[in-house]
Design brief:
The complex is a heterodimer of chains A (139) and B (326).
Chain A lengths: L15 H13 L3 E7 L10 E2 L10 H15 L3 E8 L6 E9 L7 E7 L5 E7 L12
Antiparallel strand pairs in A: 1-2, 1-3, 3-4, 5-6
Chain B lengths: L1 H5 L3 H4 L19 H7 L2 H11 L4 H22 L11 E5 L5 H14 L8 E4 L1 H4 L7 H12 L3 E4 L15 H14 L5 E6 L1 H10 L1 H6 L2 E5 L4 H14 L3 E2 L1 H15 L6 H22 L7 H5 E2 L1 H5 L18
Helix pairs in contact in B: 8-9, 12-13, 12-14
The chains are: A alpha+beta (139), B alpha/beta (326).
């Protein structure tokens, strides 16, 4: 099942030129660009691991793309996303976030039902991928 | 083609008639370099260069040559002729204060107008910014700088410090290797300009032949002449809304002649320091005067006595500590 999180996730995967253009847009807006990765695709998993530091002082997307290339070299089998953080007063939050790398095989999510007190049922989703320990999930 | 190319130099501009192929609205298959030149916004930059920077004629000529080459390359590309990606890495050699950094800034703007760097910003670094303090510190540091400079110009001041042959465990070599690799593989991402004193840069290039071959343009900055230094001084004052009185101008010319013969003379920078001290003396002179309110003239004019008080006239170097060559 294809993971749809963040901007552009219903589109085909972005090419590198498209990613470069988006990153350049973030830079031109004055946002700090971050590269994050994870192997836990659960939608509530908000805080992904960061690749390096937020890139505040970069003027051109080529610098970010170089970092993305090295991140892919190490974590090419995981989800990688790029986000643009707007530090300006009143926003102070992520303005754009999109997935730039995904595992070859995305097993999707299971819906689990738990019978609770009375006739109540609690629902939860769990990624099939997370049955394996961290680091072994997509290899 | 030759005539149009000539037209890029300003003195030939009025004389050279437009070549037939270069007339506006020329037939397809022709190219108008002159119009290209105008459209690129370069004339303003060169005008600015001529106005703001005194002297440096050989360098201005060299910049025009580089601009011409890049324009011709672009025209060739339009016809599908083979264009080798130009190597634009440069080395600026010259004594301190001859305008290397200022020119590097201009270079970034020129290359940006020509479309050879995407952003046209200048990142100025020295050895400290590139070389780390312990094992494994250098590579990330250098890469960080390269990341910042992507799409612009990386200006490495006093580049010869990167290589310290006397210490074989120095991490500078690691930084050099990364730089060389990037200079070769990411030529369209950034332009590297190395700067430093001529003799030490020569030794640096001898020890690192890889650098010499990857740097296409070696530009040597000559020292300024006395009249040029005087003009530089006057422009600096003008920018700060000061001016020299006629006597002060004569004295300052004398000062320059004396100062040039003394050690640690740093061209434009020494002039700036001398003028800063003159402003200081002017301020204290005005402060001690007690004959009524000051006029605008009093506040802007630097008198001969402000300059004559300098130690240069007493035969000792004006400043022993403040002006080590840098």
């Amino acid at each position: 099942m294809r993971l749809t999180q963040g901007t552009f996730s219903f589109l085909p995967d972005l090419t590198d030129e498209q990613i470069t253009a988006q990153v350049q847009y973030c830079i031109d807006q004055g946002w700090a660009v971050n590269i994050e990765f994870t192997d836990d695709p659960h939608p509530r998993n908000t805080y992904w691991d960061m690749w390096g530091l937020p890139m505040f002082d970069i003027r051109d997307a080529a610098g970010v793309m170089g970092e993305l290339a090295s991140c892919r070299k190490v974590y090419g089998d995981r989800y990688i996303r790029i986000s643009g953080f707007d530090a300006s007063h009143g926003w102070e939050s992520v303005r754009l976030s999109f997935i730039v790398n995904r595992p070859a095989n995305e097993p999707g999510f299971a819906l689990e039902r738990q019978e609770s007190d009375g006739r109540r049922v609690r629902y939860t989703t769990r990624s099939y991928a997370t049955q394996l320990p961290e680091g072994e999930r997509y290899s | 083609m030759a005539a149009t190319l000539m037209a890029i130099s300003p003195d030939a501009a009025d004389v050279a008639p437009a070549a037939p192929g270069a007339a506006p609205g020329a037939a397809p298959g022709a190219v108008d370099l002159r119009a290209d030149f105008e459209a690129s916004g370069l004339p303003e930059i060169f005008d600015q260069l001529d106005q703001e920077m005194v002297g440096l004629a050989p360098i201005k000529r060299r910049l025009r040559e580089i601009a011409a080459l890049l324009l011709v390359d672009r025209a060739r590309q339009r016809f599908g002729l083979a264009v080798g990606a130009p190597t634009l890495h440069m080395s600026f050699t010259g004594n301190p204060g001859t305008g290397k950094t200022t020119l590097a800034l201009k270079m970034a703007a020129i290359l940006h107008r020509l479309g050879y760097v995407r952003r046209g910003h200048l990142v100025t670094v020295t050895r400290d910014d590139l070389v780390g303090q312990y094992i494994g510190h250098t590579a990330p540091k250098t890469k960080e700088v390269l990341k910042r400079a992507a799409g612009g110009v990386l200006f490495i001041d006093e580049a010869y410090y990167l290589y310290r042959p006397e210490n074989e465990r120095d991490y500078g070599q690691e930084s050099i290797e990364i730089l060389l690799q990037v200079m070769e593989n990411q030529r369209d991402d950034l332009v590297v300009i190395l700067a430093g004193y001529a003799d030490r840069m020569d030794r640096f290039f001898q020890a690192n032949p890889g650098f010499r071959s990857r740097v296409a343009h070696h530009i040597d900055f000559p020292d300024y002449g006395e009249e040029e230094l005087l003009e530089i001084g006057e422009r600096q004052l003008e920018a700060m809304n000061y001016r020299l009185s006629p006597q002060a101008k004569a004295v300052f010319a004398q000062y320059i002649a004396l100062r040039r013969g003394q050690p640690h003379f740093a061209n434009g920078r020494s002039i700036r320091n001398a003028l800063d001290r003159a402003r200081l003396r002017q301020a204290s002179r005005l402060f001690q005067r007690d004959d009524g309110p000051l006029s605008v003239d009093d506040l802007t004019v630097i008198e001969a006595e402000d300059i004559l008080a300098s130690r240069v006239f007493a035969g000792t170097p004006d400043s022993q500590v403040g002006e080590a060559p840098s």
